[in-house]
Amino acid sequence: MTDWDSSPPAAASGGRRLAAARAEARAVRQPLERPAPLRQAVYDVIAEMIINRELQPGEHLVENELAAQLGVSRQPVREALQRLHSEGWVDLRPALGAFVHVPTEAEADQLLAARTLLETESARLAARGATPEHIEHLWGLQRAGEKALSDDDQEGMVAANAALHAYVVSMSGNNVLAELIALVDRRVRWYYLPIARSRGREAWDEHAALIEVIASRNGKRAGDMMRRHTERTRESYHKRRKEAAEREALA
Length: 251
What we know:
By secondary structure, the chain is mostly helical. Helix content is 74%, strand content 4%. The chain has a three-stranded antiparallel sheet with strand order 1-3-2. Strand 2 and strand 3 form a beta hairpin. Helix 5 (105-128) crosses helix 7 (154-172), helix 7 (154-172) runs parallel beside helix 9 (196-215) and helix 9 runs antiparallel to helix 10 (219-250). The protein is globular, with a radius of gyration of 26 Å.
């Protein structure tokens, strides 16, 4: 009978020592902090203030003023501004402080172009699987938007527009597509607010026509119509920026 050496080979023993060292190194890491609801709440409120233009692009963000306004200490405000900076909503300038980001024309164009591609596909898929219940809900969202329009409620128009588009995305049944669109949704709302009134009746007429096409379950037509609709929003945004620049040049 052959006697087997019970001691491990050098390579195997060295591998186990390396694995043990790695495990020990991982063990000494600091545990992850549990989510802080206040920190998240402060972040959400400031983000919405930026999106709704309560805080204007280029505006100086003063920590103690925001803290007093929100009834919190400066610490969660500072943390929220750091996160907003990492996400592109806020610019941090050395020795000057925090400022609401001023979007460039290229940034807006890239985002709105991406939105067109994603929402075109979502409309195509939504039409293919549309049910009477889906269509009824879309008409309810359409009525909410038209009410906001008649009330000249700019923020209400933006919210209703976002809700209608989000519901079309949910109808697509494509979770990956929904996640990608969710990444750009807040910024689209930010860009859309200044043109919500000027798009006005035209945009909601386009929504009504889109709902009718989705109800017919014609995916190609629905995709084409959504592409034209989102492209008009993109064109309106650039037109407004151009007009604003011309007014500033004449001032």
